[in-house]
Amino acid sequence: MNYMPGTASLIQDIDKKHLVLLRDGRTLIGYLRSIDQFANLVLHQTVERIHVGKKYGDIPRGIFVVRGENVVLLGEIDLERESDTPLQQVSIEEILEEQRVEQQAKQESEKLKAQALKERGLSVPRADTLDEY
Amino acid sequence: QSLEDCPLDEDEDAFQALGEEDEDIDQFNDDTFGAGAVDDDWQEAHERLAELEDKPAAARREQDGPGGEDSDLLGEPEDTLAERLTRLVIDSELEDPAIMRAVQTRLPAQQPGGLNSSIWDSSAVLRRIRGPLLAQDMPSVSVLDYALPQRPPQAREEERDPSERALPRRSSSPVIGSPPVRAVPIGTPPKQAAVPSFNQQILCPKPVHIRATLPQRYPPPYGERMSPNQLCNVPNSSLLGHPFPHSVSPVLTHLQRAQLLGGAQAGRMSPSQFARVSGLVGSPLPSVNPKLLQGRVGQMMSPASGFRAFFGAPPAPPPPSQPQHPPGPTSHLQSLRPQPQMFRPDTTHLHPQHRRLLHQRQQQNRNQHRSLNGSVGDRGGHRSSQQERKDPYANLMLQREKDWVSKIQMMQLQSTDPYLDDYYYQNYFQKLEKLAAAEEVQGDGPKKERTKLITPQVAKLEHTYKPVQFEGSLGKLTVSSVNNPRKMIDAVVTSRSEDDETKEKQVRDKRRQTLVTIEKTYSLLLDVEDYERRYLLSLEGERPALMGERKQKICDMYDNLRGKAPGQERPSDDHFMQIMCIRKGKRLVARILPFLSPEQAADVLMATARNLPFLIKKDAQDEVLPCLLRPFSHVLYHLPLGTVTSLVQQLTNLPQSATASAPTNLHLTAVLQNKFGLSLLYLVLSRGEELQSSDSNTELMQDNQW
């Protein structure tokens, strides 16, 4: 059954394992069970995967209903090749700790950058003030 | 017609068809049942209601609205308003008297009526269901009622249908323009199943959808065994309205498969029926009556068969056409009769989920035996079937639901002019097809069948939107909706005086004006480019007119480029320069050049050459000048020597009298240092050389200049 050839339609993807990237940066992996015309998704046996560097950790979440507008991209996971990844899986606590450390480091560097710019009399350009094209 | 104002745009077509059905149904009912019987029943019902007057006021008040009125229910303004609201949103309905008639008569005669009256149910809407008519003889479905849980069950039993047919009084005043509270949101997929016409099995009872275990509102008093007919007629059997999974899919399943699944369906049905019957679970949601299902079948077939064509697959035997409802339901009705033999009443009370899983596994096993091993006999097919076997949650999304989503997506693709609406897609596929054709011509490889999406082309329909009007209301109520938004802000354009503006603002405005000019010229350009296609599509008589339009547009474009004042001398290239400073402007010029006449094109070239150093400086960031090279070279090809000579002069800025050499050098230097300038100069020189050497009649003066 070929639904709408030549288009991007999620109907063929149903009941397959998918990786979904959300707008807030979260990565969800789950079986796509149901969709609708807005690309709202129902994910089953969902796992939230946190990546830090070469490590990742999975948090089992259960059933997710994702509003379509929050999806950045999603792709089918090849179950056979799912396990050959160079990344190393760690426990949840460990990955959360790693994530916290990473966030902290990023904040530090941002602060330093802003400080340096301020010293030079410049300001960080914010995206919303760019008027001219 | 309130039908057209339904906010559910995607179901609009279905709704309109339903509207037509409504009229058919009404007539049918009138003929069948007549007015006389109704009145009697009405009076009976009223008497019974009068008895209820003694009951506690609280219980009564809820029925008071619908039941306590002496005269026609529709007379009450508030009820009318409420009803109109429901009509608006639910988009349903027979007129109530008709419904009542349908209810009151006996079963056999009633069934066709019931079927018909229920046909108008629309997808995804709450259905009012007749009260617990279970206690009585085979009441019919039809009437829609709100599933208000607070209705006391015992009172319902005593109430007759007429009392229920009106919208029950809401405790809060009806909010105008807002849809009434509904348990089932608008966006849910249709709950009815479409019976493929070639499949003679009846889908009378619907499958229970396992996931929701809903409390049953009215524990039915009937026994465990019911004939399928009875089952069908049970209105509030709290069968959840979920469409049939596989027996329904009319589009692409095998005939046999569908039938087999239908059999599995039937088997599945009865246990679920009994589960419901024995009061395992109740339902706060009103469920769609199975009758509605069948009636609906005819309706749903049309979109399904519609996009069968979309897939380019050979259509199965076409279902009966929609408008003929009486034959539709009756055929289903007849096919209802043989049902009893197919039913295998199963008294095992499985938990709904277990039952479902069991049947899924059975069905999957059948799948594996049949279709998957055939055409898709490769590893992939096997693997997926194995996985399906292990995956108990597969097919949670029913085939019908998939088709529904697909239908919506296809509807979005409907267009009157695909070249206008979907230009890039059309072009892309044309390119692909050309490639494929070329490949086929060259190689003798296996012809790859690429299925192409055939988008429906609809005639343009003018839908005049009439804002919804409430009858009987004082004054004009403004209802704000998507099609009729309310004006929130009064935005007034105030033109500023020239004095106040600072220099910066002026510069910015000028730049903005240039941008606007570029955009306008671009639209002209797109139109001009499109003329060729239109030319081919148009009739002979229209072609000169088209050509004329095209010419006019080209002139307009040129004017835009060079700045207005067509009749005057154009001393300054300022306007043109402004355009050329902007990246998009340069691209625009490159695209326009092929359309301009030689003189105009030469003019453009000259202007560019004249100001080349300036342009080069400005282009440092964009680096778009090279795009002009190609059209320039085309133009050059057609230029006479004189022009070319002057062009060279411009480029190098050689003054006639050889004075002031310093600025000259600068100009030339800049030109030479830039890739574009260099290439342009080279082109011009080579062209000049060609012309000079080829044409033996060159005048001496020109030669000298050169």
UniProtKB/TrEMBL annotation, chain A:
Q: Where is the Sm domain?
A: 5-80
InterPro entries, alphabetically? Lsm1, LSM_dom_sf, PTHR15588, Sm, Sm_dom_euk/arc
The main location is: cytoplasm
Q: Which UniProt keywords apply?
A: Cytoplasm, mRNA processing, mRNA splicing, Phosphoprotein, Ribonucleoprotein, RNA-binding
UniProt-listed Pfam families:
LSM (PF01423)
Q: Coiled coil where?
A: none
Transmembrane helix as UniProt keyword: no
Gene Ontology cellular component list: Lsm1-7-Pat1 complex; P-body; ribonucleoprotein complex
What quaternary structure, including any partners, is listed in this protein's UniProt entry? Answer: Interacts with SLBP; interaction with SLBP occurs when histone mRNA is being rapidly degraded during the S phase. LSm subunits form a heteromer with a donut shape.
Task: Tell me the protein family, please.
Answer: Belongs to the snRNP Sm proteins family.
This chain's function reads: Plays a role in the degradation of histone mRNAs, the only eukaryotic mRNAs that are not polyadenylated. Probably also part of an LSm subunits-containing complex involved in the general process of mRNA degradation.
Q: What is this protein called?
A: U6 snRNA-associated Sm-like protein LSm1
From TrEMBL, chain B:
Say if the entry is tagged with keyword Ribonucleoprotein: no
Q: Where is the composition biased (Basic and acidic residues)?
A: 43-64, 154-167, 379-392
State the source organism's domain of life: Eukaryota
**Where does the mRNA decay factor PAT1 domain lie?**
466-699
Where would you find the membrane-spanning parts of this chain? none
Q: Name one GO biological process term.
A: deadenylation-dependent decapping of nuclear-transcribed mRNA
Q: What is this protein called?
A: Protein PAT1 homolog 1
Look up and give the organism this protein is from: Todus mexicanus (Puerto Rican tody)
Question: What is the similarity comment for this entry?
Answer: Belongs to the PAT1 family.
Question: What residue spans carry the Acidic residues bias annotation?
Answer: 1-29, 67-80
What residue spans carry the Pro residues bias annotation?
A: 314-329
Q: Where in the cell is it found?
A: Cytoplasm, P-body; Nucleus speckle; Nucleus, PML body
